[in-house]
UniProtKB/TrEMBL annotation:
Its EC number is 2.1.3.2. SUPFAM superfamilies: Aspartate/ornithine carbamoyltransferase. This is Aspartate carbamoyltransferase. Residues 180-326 form the Aspartate/ornithine carbamoyltransferase Asp/Orn-binding domain. Pathway: Pyrimidine metabolism; UMP biosynthesis via de novo pathway; (S)-dihydroorotate from bicarbonate: step 2/3. Heterododecamer (2C3:3R2) of six catalytic PyrB chains organized as two trimers (C3), and six regulatory PyrI chains organized as three dimers (R2).
């Protein structure tokens, strides 16, 4: 980047980056370049010891992190908390069900009140797309916002834990790189923030062959513009892929005009061992969870040798440690400049 104006414009468009390109909030993978994503993967790799066990550090010692989950979550919320504790942070979980947002308080007022309690970082999951971006625009300088999923829009830490899993479990084991991979994402692409963030991260890391496999009713309009190839049949889309990513079918959509029945869906789009056999012999089977066994994935595949679904959960701790430590360091560099 060659002019100060260009740098300032870039920062307005990208509140998650400092002027020197360091991460200071983590809102989305869009706008981050390949080196920045690789830095997150490298940093996360550094949180495993020689035996592959997670380590503890003091990178967030003395910092207060608040978890604001306005939507349900098991894995994301717990792995964020585990990551915060491994980084030595003081952790506060806001009990949203009993909070004043239920009495009509705005998100902005909730944020400002919690800030007054000396928070250094907020991890937020919200049903409104753009909630994390909005909070980053409202928050006091030096407080970091981490997006733990906003509406249908983005789930950047899920995307990065998926990238770390592909890197550790496939690229390193097969001495290959992202640019040589074929990746299939199956299911409810239309309503999935995981699919959007995964596609973006995979493209930035150089994956050229990204396939989405879904019935037409579960594909967003204009999906071709995402730079992916679209398949309506599993048998065609899965041929020769390295990575299979299943998505949750929202039960609330079953029986609606979008999906006739769970058994019908499983018949056409279920990830079964016969279908996994169409992919490369050591292809990875991934799923962000929560999964519906017998709907989008057969139980024996979910528990089978090629499944890395529980490894994804463990990698989630390392990736969340990495982005929180990086964002806090980015905020500190802003403080030092002020
Ligand atoms: C996903 C989410 O919440 O977006 N799950 C997760 O974070 N592990 C996917 C989903 O709910 O289907």
């Amino acid at each position: 980047m060659n002019s100060i104006k260009q740098r300032l414009d870039a920062q307005l468009a990208q509140p998650q980056l400092t002027k020197s390109g360091a991460i200071c909030h983590f809102i989305g993978v869009e706008g981050l370049d390949r080196l920045q994503l690789e830095n997150i993967i490298d940093k996360a790799m550094g949180y495993f010891d020689g035996k592959g066990r997670l380590i503890n550090t003091d990178e967030l010692a003395g910092k207060t992190v608040m978890n604001l989950f306005f939507e349900n979550s098991t894995r994301t919320r717990t792995t964020f908390e585990a990551a915060q504790k491994r980084l030595g942070a003081n952790v506060l979980n806001l009990d949203i069900a009993r909070s004043s947002t239920n009495k009509g308080e705005t998100l902005r007022d909730t944020l400002w009140n919690l800030e007054a309690m000396s928070a250094d970082m907020f991890v937020v999951r919200h049903s409104a797309s753009g909630a994390a971006h909005f909070m980053a625009s409202q928050v006091t300088p030096n407080v970091a916002i981490i997006n733990a999923g906003d509406g249908w829009h983005a789930h950047p830490t899920q995307a990065m834990l998926d990238m770390l899993t592909i890197h550790r479990e496939y690229c390193l084991k097969h001495s290959t790189t992202f640019d040589k991979l074929s990746v299939a994402i199956i299911g409810d692409i239309k309503h999935s923030r995981v699919a959007r963030s995964d596609i973006s991260a995979l493209q930035t890391l150089g994956v050229k062959d990204i396939r989405v496999i879904a019935p037409k009713t579960l594909l967003p309009k204009g999906i071709e513009r995402y730079g992916v190839s679209v398949f309506n049949k599993m048998e065609e889309g899965l041929a020769g892929v390295d990575i299979i990513i299943g998505l949750r079918i929202q039960n609330e959509r079953i029986g609606s005009p979008l999906l006739p029945s769970t058994s019908e869906y499983f018949k056409h789009y279920g990830i079964t061992d016969t279908r996994v056999a169409l992919a490369k012999p050591d292809a990875l089977v991934m799923h962000p969870g929560p999964m519906n066994r017998g709907v989008e994935i057969a139980s024996n595949v979910a528990d089978g040798e090629q499944s890395v679904i529980l490894k994804q959960v463990n990698n989630g701790i390392a990736v969340r440690m990495a982005v929180m430590a990086m964002a806090m360091r980015g905020q500190e560099s802003l403080r030092n400049l002020a």
